[in-house]
Fold:
Amino acid sequence: MTKSVLPYHQNATNKKEQVAEMFDNISGRYDFLNHFLSLGIDKLWRKKAISILKKENPKLILDVATGTADFAFEALRANPEKVIGIDISEGMLAQGRKKISKASLIHKIELQTGDSENILFPDNYFDAVIVAFGVRNFENLNKGIENMKRVLKPGGTLMILEFSKPESFPFNVLYNFYFKKILPLFGRLVSKDHRAYSYLPESVQAFPYGKAFVVILKSLGFKSVECLNLTMGISALYICKK
Structure:
């Protein structure tokens, strides 16, 4: 069981409600901050994931915790017939729909309000399920992963892109200083949300990563799980086969 970290400690609402509120609050600035604070490296991580997925020729892809649909856009490089993105934040979905409309891709990407723990699609429906930087925010991690596995076709692939923790000195020291001090300060100033970018490092710190997360994924019944560390361990790509 992972430690539960909440965006707003003083609120009486549950994690799911708080996460939705947080992303609604920062949705207008999310894309700018996401790419600026990561120096654009997050785009490379998504490209890496889809370059691997592309070899499997998935026709129907589900993007869980799609946010503003960055991963859904990147998933089009795998040449699917359609990508469906779900998210609990209406604010983030609104931003994503604007981008999809502007790019004239309404026929290729569809965004819906949806919850990872209660995915409203039949069993064995999708060729691939992808999620980028979203599983940390699940209220019930195991239930969310089990639901993604349920809607995945036998032999299909679940790809999870998530922040990790660099372990090599001195990079880990420099990274931790940036991640825990500089990023929250700048994020707070730009997003106007006093907690969103403090919650980020706190949630990463509490989340299992690497071998620990692989153990969880295998325990939930995936036939194989591979973990690829990216950019000296800042993030990791977990490739799971049903």
